[in-house]
Amino acid sequence: MLMMFLFSMLFVMGHYMLNTGNEKDNTHNFPFLFLTLATPVLLLTVLSIGRELMRLWEKAMRDRDRH
Predict the structure, then answer these.
(1) FRET pair for 46, CA 20 to 30 Å: which of 4, 10, 21, 55?
(2) Tens digits of per-residue pLDDT, 8-44?
(3) Residue 12 and residue 33 in contact, taking contact as beta carbons nearer than 8 Å
(4) What number of other Cβ atoms are within 10 A of residue 20's Cβ?
(5) Rounded to two decimals, what is the model's pTM?
């Protein structure tokens, strides 16, 4: 997932670099492309971290109830 995130950032920045200097203004494409490519990876990362935190919290609650 980290590699996908890094490659998506490189792709978007490369696309932005190649398409600047045209007659029309392409600056509004950068946020759209970045969010389109990076959001799935970031969402999976946040969900994975949240799941791990929930697992640790449940384990701590079970250990607390035993004592």
Answers:
(1) 10
(2) 777 777 777 676 665 566 566 667 777 777 777 888 8
(3) yes
(4) 12
(5) 0.52
